[in-house]
Prior knowledge:
- The protein is mainly beta.
- The protein contains 1 helix and 15 strands, in the order αβββββββββββββββ.
- It has one helix at 3-28; strands spanning 31-33, 43-47, 51-55, 58-62, 70-74, 81-89, 95-103, 109-116, 126-129, 134-135, 152-159, 162-167, 170-176, 185-190, 201-211.
- A hairpin with a 2-residue loop joins strand 11 and strand 12.
Amino acid sequence: MRARAWTSVVAVAAVLGLVGTAAAAEKCEGWKVLFDGRSLDGWEQHGGKAVYKVEDGAVVGHSVPNTQNSFMCTKERFTDFELLFEVQDDPALNSGVQIRSNLKENDRVFGPQVEIEVGPGEAGYIYGEATGRGWLSQDRGKKITLKKDGWNQYRVVAKGNNIKTWVNGEPVADLTDDEMSKEGFIGLQVHGVGGREEPLYVRWRNIKIRALD
């Protein structure tokens, strides 16, 4: 085998070894990938009729007129966890990620929602979706501005009656609430837009979770 060819083989093997090591390390740390970048296996839609699809390794949701809030939800339920995801949101579209959420009899999703809006506004704070309680985060003094054209990183830690959030590495919410559900699914929201015909888009990727002891 020629020296150049052998060098290429060694380089490829090294890269594959690094990938394998990273994957093994992630598995050892307890992380579980919720979205594989190719399909919506393990997810199901509830609520409204917004359109969800997979495109370029992301879950893409877009609004449709005259439907209620829509949610693409995990079939699996979670209790105490750390959740990581990245998101891009149209500046004109309100969105969010449900955590520890549940269903009412009419297929209406309810529970804590981590707010997503380009802002500056309440991005990262906790809203009580369909709970009748409004904002669960009462202190929302810090106004976060999401990137309009890039990806925004969210981190959520839910343990017991406490939820903490970070947006692009910056701490935002620190909520303690004894009335919240302590178990439920994760849901990706496309907010209702009334009669607006032009679709508005929100995208998520790199969604993973790990249980906390």
